[in-house]
Design brief:
Keywords: DNA-binding. This protein is an all-alpha fold. 72% of the residues lie in helices and 0% in strands.
Length: 189
């Protein structure tokens, strides 16, 4: 059996943490559950990360980076409406095939609101910075048009909310979205 390096183990912790936090949120997920999923002890987990918040921050940054790459790869070489629909299609595919990424995003926003309410701004700063990287990667292919970028991001957040609330693909609530943002038939398992 090949032993993992500390960096490989760290990456496996981040992936496991994203799965656990996606389901339980920041406050409902224990470091014990993360350690168990990875197959390490909690003391080992804390050799890799100074605490639960650091693990959550790493998982949040990883989630945002995956989404940023999704948009970047989908829009490569495209501009305007072609880029918009390519990014929307890619994102809808991701949330249909990897629902943990959507759930992690939603948990990040809830965790930021709770942390900010408690006076802790570190999480919010990190998540907002990641969100701005998403904005920037979408903004350029959409012609650096602020209105187009805002509309695209707003549609994405609406899709996140509708999917999170469990609206089925055939529900009338999807009718107002542009075709590539519709979930119709894509979330059926």
């Amino acid at each position: 059996m090949v032993r993992m390096s500390a960096e490989e183990r760290r990456e496996s912790v981040i992936r496991a943490a994203m799965s656990e936090f996606a389901r339980g949120g920041y406050y409902g997920t224990s470091t014990e559950a993360i350690a168990k999923r990875v197959g390490v002890s909690q003391p080992y987990l804390f050799r890799l990360f100074p605490g639960k918040k650091a693990i959550f921050l790493a998982a949040a940054e990883y989630c945002m980076e995956l989404t940023r790459r999704t948009f970047e790869e989908a829009s490569e070489g495209l501009q305007g409406e072609e880029a918009l629909h390519a990014m929307a299609n890619a994102y809808v595919k991701v949330i249909a095939e990897q629902p943990e990424r959507l759930l992690m995003q939603m948990q990040m926003y809830v965790a930021v609101a709770a942390a900010e309410e408690a006076g802790d701004h570190e999480l919010g700063e990190a998540v907002r910075a990641g969100w701005m990287r998403l904005w920037d990667v979408v903004h350029v292919p959409l012609g650096a048009d602020v209105d187009e970028t805002a509309t695209f991001m707003a549609y994405g957040m609406l899709v996140n909310c509708l999917v999170s609330m469990g609206f089925p693909p055939e529900h009338r609530v999807w009718e107002g979205l542009y075709p590539s943002a519709r979930i119709t038939g894509r979330l059926e398992k």
